[in-house]
Amino acid sequence: MKISLENNSENLSVTGLHFETTRTLNSNRKDGVTNHLKAKGVSDDASALNFIEYYRVDCKINAYRPVKRQPPSLLSLHLNKKYLERVLRRIKKLLQGYPTILELSPDTVHIYQPIEAPLLETVPILDWTCEMEPSNAFLKFAEDWLSRNRADRNHNPSFENCMLSIPGSLSSASVKDINVVQEWNGIRPKIDDRVFEDFRYYLIGLKVERERQKGYYIYLECCILLSRTYRCKA
């Protein structure tokens, strides 16, 4: 079985008692090939298939390489199915996008929209945000922006954790196969200055909130120090 999403792929092969997993990131990186069944002493094909079935549950792969600075190339949204049509209309209106849609359960869908964007640290109107890692922050912004904050609050996509569910694997949420509702049309919408302007305001809001929290914590530290001082004097 060969599973491929974007430039990432997961290859699983069974030949008699031989089972090995090869993971490739961006078609130029291979991480360890291991023979799991031989190590476990599995002696028949039925056991081999059961072994694969076990690892088919919640099978996922990261959409990005494990590096801090890279252009955002895929947007991931997790949301309740009741918001799907509204979000798709917004993706069409704002990006002219036509994403892949996976159904994980009767109530849950994942949307994957490939895009074309530069390294955001090099965009002139965002050059002051380099310390905030704008390319990385764009993934969460895009999910909230496109869904109008209706996306799953527990989903926080980043380069380190932008996990994509694999069609045909088993979802533990519904104990059913993950189905493809809609396939990407192969066109990557370009992210332009209009989107970057909205993103800039988003980053300004984040910076203000961080400074506010920083000031609050400094205030708390001062209160603690003052309380300790009064105790010593007492």
Description:
The chain has about 230 residues and is of the alpha+beta class. The protein folds into two domains: about 55 residues, no CATH class; about 130 residues, no CATH class. About 35% of the residues lie in helices and about 25% in strands. The protein is built from five helices and twelve strands. The protein has a four-stranded antiparallel β-sheet. It has a four-stranded antiparallel β-sheet with strand order 6-8-7-12. Strands 5-9 form a two-stranded antiparallel sheet. The longest helix is centred in the C-terminal third of the chain and has 41 residues. The protein is globular and about 55 Å long. It starts with a strand and ends with a helix. The N terminus and C terminus are likely disordered.
- Report, as a whole number of angstroms, the end-to-end distance: 73 Å
Helix and strand succession? EEEEHHEEHEEHEEEEH
- Basic shape: globular
What is the strand tally?
12
Helicity, as a percent range: 25-40%
What is the domain tally?
2
Strand content: 25-35%
Mean pLDDT: 77
Strand ordering within the main sheet: 1-2-3-4
Quaternary organisation of the protein chains: single chain
- Give a quick account of the main beta sheet: strands, pairing sense, barrel closure: 4 strands, antiparallel
- CA radius of gyration: 23 Å
| Uncertain segments | 1-38, 229-234
The DSSP helix count reads 5
* Helix/strand class: alpha+beta
